[in-house]
Amino acid sequence: MLPLLLGLTLTVSQPSPTAVAQFGYTWPVDRDRHPEHIIAGASQAYVPQEGDLLFYSAKRPLFRMLYAMAGTFKPYHSAIVVRRANGSFALLEAGPRGYEEVVLLTFEERFRTHFETSEEGVIWVRRLKCPLSPMESARLTQFAETQVGKDFAFGRLAMQVTPLRSRGVLGRFTKKSTPANKTWFCSELVATALLDMGRARGSYDVRQIFPRDQFYDRIMDLSPGWELPRRWTWRPCPSDPSQSMQDIRTMPRGGVVP
């Protein structure tokens, strides 16, 4: 009863939604063979909505080796779009580049940092098919605001290359995740957010879920509620998708779409 009352309180007390501006474009990709390559198809203007999922990748040999040892591969990072208590939109992430904790970042800040600090940086978007209900929105906001500042799970990440890794024989005996976690891995945080607000249902050990699983609908099938991943670009008609990096470096402050 208490969680329900808290949710209702948040729903009533949330400020009016802040208008969301278009932020770049998305393009269809061949997810199964070449997810980084744009295929024939029209671009779509990207207007963020809470519940959208974002995935990041870049050329990082160390990450490639560590993730391979953990039994997975790129994308190496995931995030979820949330509405903050003040009504603005932000990206909820655990340990994005430059941070060692859970943070809420603006799209402009996060995208600019990714492309400016990553070689061959790529971002994909999985849009939510049906907008969140007021109750789901309130629960996601509450979850996000209460996780900010918690540490990134560096220790648990290091365990992924040992017999204690999440998908290892001994991993099943490790403590399971709950919203009360003191540390988070990126995809674990996203998966818990989806379960906590009720958009994803079922019993999962979210510590076994990596960004690649959320990208390819493995372990937790997101296809009923989310569109297929689409590659994000800043320009509507890039001759080369890699130009997104150069383009966003010249993006005017405030993220005005060209």
Number of domains: 1
* Low-confidence regions: 1-16, 254-258
The value of Rg in angstroms is: 18 Å
Report the total helices: 8
| Assembly state | single chain
Assign the CATH architecture: Alpha-Beta Complex
CATH top level?
Answer: Alpha Beta
InterPro entries: Papain-like_cys_pep_sf
Organism: Tuwongella immobilis
Region (Disordered): 237-258
Protein name: : DUF830
Please write out the topology.
Layout: H1 2-13, E1 25-30, E2 34-38, E3 44-45, E4 53-57, H2 61-69, E5 77-83, E6 89-94, E7 102-105, H3 107-117, E8 122-126, H4 134-147, E9 151-152, H5 154-159, E10 183-184, H6 186-197, H7 211-216, E11 230-233, H8 243-249
Parallel strand pairs: 9-10
Antiparallel strand pairs: 1-2, 1-3, 1-11, 4-5, 4-8, 5-6, 6-7, 8-11
Helix pairs in contact: 1-4, 3-8, 4-6
Describe what this molecule looks like in 3D.
- There is one protein chain.
- With 258 residues, this protein is α+β, with helices and mostly antiparallel strands.
- It has one domain: Alpha-Beta Complex (endopeptidase fold (from Nostoc punctiforme)).
- The protein contains eight helices and eleven strands.
- It has helices spanning 2-13, 61-69, 107-117, 134-147, 154-159, 186-197, 211-216, 243-249; strands at residues 25-30, 34-38, 44-45, 53-57, 77-83, 89-94, 102-105, 122-126, 151-152, 183-184, 230-233.
- The strands form two sheets. Strands 1, 2, 3, 4, 5, 6, 7, 8 and 11 form a nine-stranded antiparallel beta sheet that branches. The chain has a two-stranded parallel sheet with strand order 9-10.
- Strand 1 and strand 2 (34-38) form a beta hairpin.
- The protein starts with a helix and ends in a 9-residue tail after the last helix.
- This is : DUF830.
- Residues 237-258 are annotated as: Disordered.
